[in-house]
Each structure stands twice: as structure tokens, then as C-alpha cells.
Specification:
With 149 residues, the chain is mostly helical. It folds into two domains: 42 residues, no CATH class; 77 residues, Arc Repressor Mutant, subunit A, CATH 1.10.10. The chain has a three-stranded antiparallel sheet with strand order 1-3-2. A hairpin with a 7-residue loop joins strand 2 and strand 3. The longest helix has 24 residues.
């Protein structure tokens, strides 16, 4: 569906730049809604899922400041998310051996099990953009990368 139809726009956009901004915002909200529906049965938010994936990718304990640097949503409060995940038993916090002021965070067994159970979620993420060929998906990623330069 074209963006004009999706938002029931009656007049043309001022220019292609305005159209792409509106389309990006609309599409981001649509993708977020799709992802939230997939995450709902697991009882975690997208931001929490992002933290769990960062920890899995790190493969070793990392600090909350490192998590903050790697988050997709830079406005998120990494410390608060880590605390909530810790309360649920999904992450482990330990005092950093080299700097007692820092806390290292890693996945707990429960966190690893949750991510393993959610492995089918990754295929559903692919389905969200499944209308695109792999070449088109790569082109779109390159265009989005170019936009952020």
C-alpha cells in the first residue's frame, strides 16, 4: 500500500523528501507494532530483547555503559532495563574485577533459554520484510546507511 493511501493523504506531499520522512516514520511504527506482537507471548519489550541480544552477541560479561553504546534506541535507560531483566532472572550482574565501581552484566541460564525459545522469532522478523528480495533488502539497508551519514 502506498503511503498516501495508508495515511489517507488528500494532497500531494510538498516534495520527495517530505514523503520519505513521513514514510520512514509510518513504516518504523508499523514494523515496531509487528515486532511487539511477536514479543508479547514472551513477556519482554523490544528494548529488553535488544539488551538480551547484545549480551548474547558479546559472549562475555559487559558493562551497562557498553550495553548503552550498542543499543538501537539511544534514549533508553540501560541500567533500568538491566535491573528489570535481573529481577526476572534473565541476566546476572557481577562486580567488575578490574574496577569495583562498574557492574558487569551477562546472560543467565534462564536468559539463554528464553533466547533459544525465541529463535523462531528471528524467522518472523524476516517475514516482516519478506516481500523484498534479498537484493532489495540489501539495497534498502544501504540506502538507510547512506541516509545516516
Amino acid at each position: 500500500m502506498k503511503i498516501e493511501e495508508a495515511i489517507q493523504q488528500k494532497r500531494p506531499f510538498r516534495n520527495a523528501y517530505q514523503k520519505v520522512i513521513v514514510n520512514l516514520i509510518y513504516t518504523q511504527n508499523w514494523v515496531t507494532g509487528q515486532l511487539q506482537q511477536y514479543l508479547k507471548p514472551y513477556g519482554i519489550t523490544m528494548k529488553q530483547y535488544n539488551v538480551l541480544r547484545i549480551l548474547k552477541g558479546a559472549g562475555k560479561p559487559i558493562t551497562t555503559s557498553t550495553i548503552r553504546e550498542r543499543l538501537l534506541d539511544k534514549m533508553s535507560d540501560a541500567s533500568r532495563m538491566v535491573e528489570r531483566l535481573h529481577q526476572r532472572g534473565l541476566v546476572v550482574r557481577t562486580t567488575c574485577p578490574t574496577d569495583k565501581r562498574l557492574v558487569d552484566v551477562s546472560l543467565s541460564k534462564e536468559g539463554e533459554q528464553l533466547l533459544a525459545a525465541m529463535s523462531k522469532f528471528e524467522g518472523k522478523m524476516d517475514d516482516i520484510v519478506g516481500q523484498l528480495s534479498e537484493t532489495e533488502a540489501e539495497q534498502l539497508s544501504e540506502l538507510l546507511d547512506k541516509l545516516r551519514k
